[in-house]
């Protein structure tokens, strides 16, 4: 496992602590995704996927009660089978156009049997995602969660330029538009990862030496001359 992946998994390990300690309004959480979208488009980035991820630890109800509640609330969703081998007690999915939603009730062996409700949304069309954020996110969110756990937002796509050209151009312009302060960077052959802090984004993640709330991963496209990107706030939660 290379250094960049090590850093990625360390940050993912912080996700549980961060989610449990931060609540916010779901309607406010669409703005970071839209800010990422608009800023990347302004530097000619082609966005191929939009994603939201969050989870809530079950403390107010038993897992079986949560499953029954979700089955009742998520009318029109496709209910899947439980998979005890993977600690999945419930799963439901709904697809509308390119917008795909998924809900799971999952127990964690590493957390002493703690149970979480996981929720994710992905889309491959900007207008469909914008419509979902404006019309469906808040009511769906309230049907799934008791509180309002932090939403992690990510976009992925491609720049036409080579990695060596993206760093001083598109990336530099993005950091400037966010008024972001660079915190950590990893540069390997054909790969660059950056963590930064910007007051333009709502939430932040406290690390031992600093706070961060936006992360950028850039990788040379092995099939062509372009550069693949993944950008997330407050950190990237999808593989890059």
Automatic annotation (TrEMBL):
Domain of life, source organism: Bacteria
SUPFAM superfamilies to which the protein is assigned, alphabetical: YwmB-like (SSF143842)
Signal peptide from the UniProt entry: none
Name of the protein: YwmB family TATA-box binding protein
Organism: Bacillus lumedeiriae
């Amino acid at each position: 496992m290379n250094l960049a992946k090590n850093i990625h998994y360390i940050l993912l390990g912080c996700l549980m602590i961060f989610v449990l300690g931060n609540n916010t309004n779901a309607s406010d959480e669409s703005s970071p995704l839209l800010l990422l979208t608009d800023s990347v488009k302004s530097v000619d980035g082609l966005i191929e996927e939009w994603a939201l991820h969050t989870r809530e630890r079950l403390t107010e109800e038993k897992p079986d009660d949560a499953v029954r509640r979700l089955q009742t609330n998520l009318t029109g969703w496709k209910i899947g089978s439980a998979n005890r081998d993977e600690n999945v007690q419930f799963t439901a999915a709904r697809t509308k156009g390119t917008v795909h939603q998924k809900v799971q009730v999952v127990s964690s062996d590493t957390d002493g049997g703690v149970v979480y409700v996981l929720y994710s949304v992905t889309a491959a069309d900007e207008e469909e995602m914008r419509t979902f954020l404006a019309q469906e996110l808040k009511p769906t969110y309230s049907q799934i969660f008791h509180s309002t756990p932090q939403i992690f937002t990510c976009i992925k796509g491609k720049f036409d330029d080579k990695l060596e050209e993206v760093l001083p151009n598109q990336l530099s312009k993005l950091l400037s538009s966010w008024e972001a302060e660079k915190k950590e960077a990893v540069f390997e052959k054909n790969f660059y990862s950056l963590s930064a802090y910007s007051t333009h984004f709502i939430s932040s993640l406290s690390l031992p030496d600093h706070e961060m709330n936006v992360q950028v991963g850039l990788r040379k496209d092995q099939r062509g001359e372009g550069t693949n990107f993944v950008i997330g706030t407050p950190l990237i939660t999808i593989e890059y």
